[in-house]
Design a protein that fits this description.
191 residues; mainly alpha; flat; two-stranded antiparallel sheet; 11 helices
């Protein structure tokens, strides 16, 4: 956004620094002044570095990894959405390591395998989790993509209609019964 703003306005030099000072919150501006003020910050790079230092809280990857392994599927969340949430958090975890081969300097990602295990362990429907584990033991489910595909098919099959939720299914059945009339007397369904 900042680069686009600079391009659109053509602002440079001291007016550019003034713009950065002006876009800070009052609290952030006070912190920046307390750490040396405007005399010490004379370039855009120095200003952006100061803002980042004061405003951005960086969490250690371990914090993200603990959060990742504690994830559980929400009761109203389908497996595909849960898997996307897991992948999003995994992206902040730094799930890579150096290849252990002699002389190899390749960096290997183990993000996909970790996401697969987190999603499998975090499935909220115990019956579906057991069936998915059985499929994994049989070799039908081998990675995150095949797990999501299998769970999506299972969810759709149990509801009978893709995209239907249990509450919508129940609601539609209730509405159908509410509008039905007795074949004998014509009154709303009774008994």
């Amino acid at each position: 956004e900042w680069s686009r703003y600079k391009r659109q306005t053509g602002v440079v030099g001291q007016p550019l620094l003034d713009e950065l000072w002006g876009c800070m919150t009052e609290e952030l501006r006070q912190l920046a002044f307390a750490e040396g003020g405007s005399l010490e910050i004379t370039t855009e790079a120095a200003m952006l570095a100061r803002i980042k230092k004061l405003a951005v809280v960086t969490l250690h990857p371990s914090v993200h990894i603990v959060t990742l392994h504690e994830l559980r599927q929400q009761s109203d969340e389908n497996t595909q959405t849960f898997a996307a949430r897991v992948r999003g958090i995994a992206a902040s975890c730094g799930l890579t390591k150096a290849c252990s081969g002699t002389g190899c300097t390749t960096i290997v990602s183990f993000s996909d395998e970790t996401c697969y295990h987190v999603v499998l362990a975090g499935i909220s429907d115990q019956s579906m989790k057991e069936r998915a584990l059985t499929q994994a033991m049989m070799g039908t489910i081998t990675d995150l993509d095949s797990l999501v595909k299998w769970c999506t098919a299972d969810e759709a099959g149990r509801l009978g209609t893709p995209g239907m939720t249990v509450s919508r299914l129940r609601q539609s059945t209730f509405k159908q019964m509410k509008n039905k009339k007795c074949r004998n007397c014509g009154a709303p369904v009774h008994g």
